[in-house]
Automatic annotation (TrEMBL):
<protein>
    <recommendedName>
        <fullName>Rhamnogalacturonase A/B/Epimerase-like pectate lyase domain-containing protein</fullName>
    </recommendedName>
</protein>
<dbReference type="InterPro" id="IPR039279">
    <property type="entry name" value="QRT3-like"/>
</dbReference>
<dbReference type="InterPro" id="IPR012334">
    <property type="entry name" value="Pectin_lyas_fold"/>
</dbReference>
<feature type="signal peptide">
    <location>
        <begin position="1"/>
        <end position="22"/>
    </location>
</feature>
<dbReference type="InterPro" id="IPR006626">
    <property type="entry name" value="PbH1"/>
</dbReference>
<dbReference type="InterPro" id="IPR011050">
    <property type="entry name" value="Pectin_lyase_fold/virulence"/>
</dbReference>
<dbReference type="Pfam" id="PF12708">
    <property type="entry name" value="Pect-lyase_RHGA_epim"/>
</dbReference>
<keyword id="KW-0732">Signal</keyword>
<feature type="domain" description="Rhamnogalacturonase A/B/Epimerase-like pectate lyase">
    <location>
        <begin position="78"/>
        <end position="300"/>
    </location>
</feature>
<dbReference type="InterPro" id="IPR024535">
    <property type="entry name" value="RHGA/B-epi-like_pectate_lyase"/>
</dbReference>
């Protein structure tokens, strides 16, 4: 230590000496700098002291304290499934081996609790080591566990796998609390259900992460989320059949890629490349972003996203791509569809159940079709008409080769006479429903007629004047906005 200090001081003196030579007109600055250096040095020594004391070479008088050796049993909590006898070639059944690895991982030391009733496993990992494993029973995790990961390999259902189960199941129930798992991560997995059952089931779980997974050959759901909160599905690919579109079997695709039967989940940056239904949602406050659905064309009976939450939808669908398949929303109440691209005559259906539609924004989307006269937004009123229509804004969408539909429209009509009628039926979504209208009568003649809005009925707006006049009438109507008087 003494030697170190001496060397530092010597170095400083040399620097100061040079400094004085170079800038001898400012000696006060040099003294100030020296003081500062010494202060810094003292601080540094104070900071270093506890570390230096541990080294008997530097301070022989200090007690020798070496870092404690890790206990013989402590090792990283990575459970390699091959160490349990799993067969990474996929030739023999690895169910028991992987379940043993999972059981050990779930018994690992607890570092306390996460949410009430969920043991924190500290980040234990079940490592599939890039292998391909055949399994004949679901890998069901016992309840009350959290902070663990299953990663890095392929699981394939054998031909005896039960068709009503899932390859990975977070579905056990726990008597301790309502939430059975927290922060379980499933990542970098290829899950092949071999047309027997589904991929992943997540029940009553909190903060589950499904990341970079490829899920295929499911007959029920690729991923089914029931109850719980905040399952985040991202950067993943799901398809019943492995195809890149235009598949000759497309008509026969079945199953659902993702079912969200719970609240507060997110599906982001996900491709759904085959299934009868892309995503079905029956829970609130879910968000869909960056999803590309080309699962089964609408013309073959497919649906991209089906919102089965009549009366309390609370769903946001943004920045997504609907490729020959669209969106169906039952009695939507609070639904936002924005910045999406609809290709191949794909459209949105508002389906009446109890006749309610409230708080719906369908804005800033692009629609591209084949000039077959398909409306971009349609009403399904087979169960009865929409009777409660409030705060619906369908506007600012752009269209190529399809019929624009909106709840806000502008029109004009030219004529010589005393009446002008603007018919908005070709554009307004709801029949016989205008909540607000404004007009301007423009005439260049020498007369200034009296004129008035006389009638709004069947989405037609009638303007009349007291004397014949050559005029253009401009009208703006709105079906959605709520105005206060
Ligand atoms: C698990 O496997 C990886 C590579 O397959 C290896 O690097 C690691 O040491 C193994 N860990 C254990 C605990 O066996
Ligand atoms: C689709 O399934 C039906 C029976 O469900 C079958 O008759 C038909 O051949 C299948 N189509 C194709 C293209 O495989
Ligand atoms: C408008 O109609 C009247 C007759 O009703 C006619 O006298 C007048 O020339 C017409 N004006 C124009 C610009 O066509
Ligand atoms: C408005 O027009 C409709 C359709 O032409 C008509 O049935 C209705 O009686 C009119 N209302 C008024 C107040 O003139």
């Amino acid at each position: 230590m003494a030697l170190f200090l001496t060397m530092v001081l010597a170095f400083l003196i040399i620097s100061i000496h040079q400094n004085v030579h170079g800038e001898n007109s400012f000696p006060p600055k040099v003294h100030f700098s020296l003081q500062k250096h010494l202060d810094e040095l003292r601080k540094m020594q104070g900071f270093k002291a506890p570390f230096l004391q541990r080294d008997p070479l530097i301070s022989s008088s200090a007690p020798s304290i070496s870092a404690p050796a890790p206990p013989a049993t402590a090792r990283p909590k990575i459970f390699n499934v091959t160490s349990y006898g799993a067969d990474p070639t996929g030739k023999t059944d690895s169910t028991d081996a992987i379940l043993r690895a999972i059981t050990d991982a779930l018994q690992g030391p607890s570092i306390g609790l996460l949410i009430n009733g969920v043991v924190n496993l500290g980040g234990a990992q079940i490592n599939l080591e890039g292998g391909n494993y055949l399994i004949s029973r679901p890998l069901q995790l016992s309840a009350g566990r959290g902070n663990l990961m299953i990663r890095g390999g392929t699981l394939k259902a054998s031909n005896t796998f039960p068709g009503d189960r899932y390859l990975i199941e977070l579905s056990s129930t726990n008597k301790n609390g309502p939430l059975n798992y927290e922060f379980v991560t499933l990542r970098d997995l290829l899950l092949d259900s071999s047309f027997l059952g589904g991929g992943i089931q997540v029940v009553n779980s909190l903060r589950t992460s499904i990341d970079n997974c490829y899920i295929t050959h499911f007959t029920t759901y690729g991923i089914l989320v029931q109850d719980g909160h905040e399952t985040y599905i991202r950067n993943s690919y799901l398809g019943q059949h492995i195809t890149a579109g235009g598949d000759p079997q497309e008509r026969n695709f079945s199953g659902t890629a993702i079912g969200l039967m719970g609240n507060d989940n997110a599906v982001t940056d996900v491709v759904i490349f085959s299934a009868a239904m892309g995503i079905i949602i029956s829970g609130q406050a879910n968000t869909i972003s960056g999803v590309h659905c080309y699962n089964k064309a609408n013309g073959f009976g497919g649906t991209g996203i089906y919102l089965k939450l009549p009366g309390l939808t609370q769903t946001r669908i943004v920045h997504s791509y609907f490729d020959y398949t669209g969106i169906v929303a039952e009695d939507p109440v609070q639904l936002n569809i924005a910045n999406c691209f609809f290709l191949g005559d794909a459209f949105i259906v508002l389906k009446s159940v109890n006749g309610q539609v409230n708080g719906v924004n369908i804005v800033d989307n692009m629609f591209s079709g084949s000039h077959r006269g398909i409306d971009i937004v349609q009403l399904d009123q087979k169960n009865g008409p929409f009777t409660q229509i409030q705060q619906v804004v369908i506007d600012r969408n752009n269209v190529d080769g399809m019929n624009l539909k909106a709840t806000v429209a502008r029109g004009s009509v030219q004529g010589n006479g005393t009446s002008w009628t603007v018919d908005f039926n070709s554009i307004l979504l709801f029949p016989d429903f205008v909540k607000h209208a404004q007009y301007t009568l423009s005439t260049s003649g020498s007369t200034f007629p009296n004129h008035a809005l006389r009638n709004i009925s069947n989405n037609n707006v009638l303007i009349e004047s007291d004397i014949p006049v050559q005029a253009t009438v401009f009208v703006t109507v709105d079906q959605g906005k709520t105005y206060t008087s």
